[in-house]
Amino acid sequence: MKKLNVWCLLNFIFGTLFTLTMISFHADFSLTAFPIALIFSAFMDYFLFIRVLKENQIKHLGAVRRFFQYQPFVYLTSFVLQRAGKKGTPYALDLVSVILWVLVLITGIVVLHYLSEKRVFKLNKEWEKENKSNPPVKFHGVKRVGIEALEWIDALVQAVYTIVLINIFLFQLYEIPSESMVPEFLIKDRVAVFKTLSGPKFPLSDIGLPYVKNYKRGDIVVLHNPHYKNDRQSEVKSFVSSFVYMATLTLVNMNKDENGELKADPLVKRVTGMPGEQLMMMDGSLYSRTKNSAEFKKVQDDEKWAAWSLNTLSSSTKSKIQWMPLSSTDYENTLSIEEQRRSLDLQSAALEGESLARRFATHATGKKSTADVKSLFTSEDLFEYNLFSKVNDNSIKLLTVDGGSEWFTDFMTGWYKNLGSLSSYSENGSLTGGNLVGGDLYSDSNFRLNVMVKLLFGRLVVRNAELISNNVSVSEWNSDSKRVELLTNAQILNDYILRLDQRNMPIFPANDASGNASYIPENCYFMMGDNRYNSLDMRHSYEQTCVPLTSYDDVSVTYYTNMAPQFVNRSMMLGKASYRFWPLNRAGVPGKSSRK
User: Between 97 and which of 21, 149, 302, 413 could a Cys-Cys bridge form, CB atoms 3.0 to 4.6 Å apart?
Assistant: First the structure.
């Protein structure tokens, strides 16, 4: 009995101190934390110390057990409520509160051990006599139904809180919501993520277990989506949403954005970039360099999991995929465009641009203009899709408007005037250097794509001008074999540029203003989905903007991009996807089985 009294006293001391740490002086939601902890503690201590320990009223033992079972949960609720305020709480207060909560939990577990049905009546002979003389009353009818209902509710509440703690500190189960990790994961696959080694923290605080695990390239991780706000209000909403989701048996999901749409959070992605690295992705290959190795080198391991064409998968796997980003023909066209870009001779391209400008001038009827002809086409007009889809209207406009021929000449020839000797530029397999426009392969390749679009557009405009000069009606243009071939090539090139941000990535982190390399900081990682053409990941933002395809041409073709690479601090990473447990025929450790 003395041991029980000691443990009860320790629990009282730690509980009282914890309750005092819940005091808030801010006029917001955090004011509710202290009253909740105080009222609960007062009732609990009254029934424990007065009714049971002092007056030996063992009929209240059941209530006391319930109090101890709920104590860590009620205190956790108070902890969250106090930190749900606008101001938050200091780190030191968080630390003290967490230590006291742990001590309350430990002492409470010990007290419950002594108060269990098997042991409690051995502690006190008077309790044992009273228990034998007053057997439990059995209820019937409405009372029995009511009691059973309360017991079910009690079990549900305790289960939800227990699951919350397990999800925070031990492991959590996730369902794959998208196809960004195909073929490793399909929609509805279920994975277990173990969190203990990944430094889990108490809700809305930085206090928790230490980081033990260091992630490596190739690890599949679950992480908070960094595209959403990560302020205190968002944390509160996310925690409450998770709690309600479990309390309603997954029927109510409140985790929505400001537009009322369900958040894509958390995400499941693969670690592809490590601390201390600078990355670049070209033609589907990932390259990296470090401070100790200034040259970019191909990340060979990335080719093991990067899926660019899903057409090689087995028919059974493909039947489960909802959207195939590329057909076999699309992927072949992709490789063809990249080969054309690599082999593009800029000197020959410049000569062709001059030739097209001269040929067009012979058909133009508009007068020369003394005004700035660059205003004839806006950034939206120069959007590569609009150039081709409106090529007939653009051709007539350039032929007839004053300054049209001058604009066309500038468009076709102005791109190389600031480059110097074109013979010095070539994609000869190097990733950086003076032989590349902009000094790196990504900048050079986009510059070349810009030239390819211009030449193709120029050929179409000149062909249209020739047809007009030959009095061929517009209705007959679609039967012209040259135009058909050019438009087919334009569609292929447009499709490639449409997916440009999935296939390539500029140097990241970007070099500083002096051109010195920057690197992913310590404890930060870069992640992508395996299904690269169907993954909004750390390469992208959720918004698109119309930008020049290259900054090295004053009249560049434009395209829509959402390229905005970012790294993720390990504090946002919830843990490694350690085991796929559903479906059963694909159960196992992710990455261990071969792709089919």
Answer: 21
